[in-house]
């Protein structure tokens, strides 16, 4: 039996090999252990109802997981929201960027110190450069002091074609990963408009090294790295 | 897709636009546009695939196939079908969400005890 890890590694290295390009990868779901999620599970195993913000694609599994535990879950797909055409603008040098002020006026609009946990998944790696720092700043403010944020970062060995996944929680420390394919429905923004500008899945925008990650989360109280075998570092930060 | 025909089902067709307060004591199928508020205390609302509802909704059951923007409160259950695009907070006793549905908002599951306590 080909191990799950082997299959995962094959997919994670992208489609440059060509052999898997024609396979229905979107239908494939891969499982992986998540040490960061395992740490977080201590929180939702307690009797205290939590307020959780899931920033990945809408996941019925995640909503079920948290609501069955009497927690409140908020779902907001920031990657899809970032494809809103009206966000495109130019900076002072004339470079095309996304309008971070407008983005934060339309998204992540919550009271300060509202959430116990934010599930960022792989958002920072795929989000447009102009949005990364503003979004992390907003996440800091909506997290409660002592609240935790989980994010995944690729290592440079992952390669630029690393597919973007959505993450479904299927156990205390187990995730199911489903490759994001941007169908028409999936490209609807918050206004319901269909975005046709993107014809393929989200692309890896950059690779953060450890120092970049520490800088990104410098306003947080602590940061913990978990190294995985699949060219991903899991990062758990505490506000 | 057409709505199931029923004697107790009111329908708003896809060319109809309504602004204001909607309330009633029969199930409602919306395939057009509604803006305002919808109150169907003991009945169900279905937003069809062409439907676009921008309203606060209170109903027994709510099924969304189209677009719904506004806070939603269901005394029984909410179903988001795969083509659903929902922006708003959902408060319900039970929820089912199909793969592909888009949700931006909170999901708050309230048990009967919570409702009685007014939480």
How would you describe the overall organization of this protein?
The complex is a heterodimer of chains A (239) and B (119). Chain A is an alpha/beta fold and 239 residues long. Chain A has helices at 4-12, 35-44, 60-68, 78-81, 100-106, 123-126, 129-142, 210-216, and strands spanning 29-33, 51-54, 72-75, 88-90, 96-98, 115-121, 143-154, 165-171, 174-179, 222-227, 232-238. Chain A has eight helices and eleven strands. In chain A, the strands form three sheets. In chain A, strands 3-2-6-7-11-10 form a six-stranded mixed β-sheet. The radius of gyration of chain A is 17 Å and the shape is globular. The termini of chain A are far apart. Chain B has 119 residues and is mainly beta. Chain B has one domain (9-109). Chain B has one helix at residues 112-117; strands at residues 9-12, 17-23, 27-30, 33-47, 52-64, 67-69, 72-80, 85-87, 90-92, 94-97, 102-109. A six-stranded parallel barrel of chain B has the order 5-6-8-11-9-7. Classes of the chains: A alpha/beta (239), B mainly beta (119). Chains A and B meet through α3 and β3 of A and β10 and β11 of B.
Structural class of chain B: mainly beta
Q: SSE string of chain A, helix = H, strand = E?
A: HEHEHEHEEHEHHEEEHEE
Please, how many domains of chain B? 1
Structural class of chain A: alpha/beta
CATH architecture of chain A: 3-Layer(aba) Sandwich
Distance between the termini of chain B: 38 Å
For this structure, what is the CATH class of chain A? Alpha Beta
Low-confidence stretches of chain B: none
Give a quick account of the main beta sheet of chain A: strands, pairing sense, barrel closure: 6 strands, mixed
Number of strands of chain A: 11
Largest sheet of chain B: 6 strands, parallel, barrel
Helix content of chain B: under 10%
Give the strand tally of chain B: 11
Largest interface: A-B, 20 and 22 residues
